[in-house]
Prior knowledge:
The structure is a single chain. By secondary structure, this protein is mostly beta strands. Helix content is 6%, strand content 40%. Strands 1-2-3-10-5-8 form a six-stranded antiparallel sheet, with no helix packed on it. The protein is globular, with a radius of gyration of 15 Å. The termini are far apart. The site of nickel (II) ion (NI) has 4 residues, from loops.
Amino acid sequence: MRHFASDSAESYAIGVVDVARWEQYSLGNKLPFQAMWYTVPPDSSSPRDCHPEVELSVVISGTASVEASDAITDVAPGSCFLLESEEAHVIHNRSTDVPLLVFTTYWMPLAGDEPAVAVAAAAGEEAAR
Ligand code: NI
């Protein structure tokens, strides 16, 4: 068993966001995905992000206001959000006093997995999974 303590992880700044990537644990190919924690300070937002990896996130503390596909969705602590490959996103922390802490995993889309953004564009809202 290995324990990964978020409060002692090595981190660095991307804009105002503090990022602690799991590469620091040298897990090699043990996990089929990458992982990180990030913190967005009160009253601030992440830089706009867009990448080929699918991204699944768990809100640990604070509330994430996730801007993606022309909508902003508030995600509460304990809840999760999934961003599709190439789905641009900005993570806002609209609290004036509570930092937002998120745990995120990300991986390249598996072979044969159709990008849901493209499916949604073709088939309308019903395609969201
Ligand atoms: Ni991202």
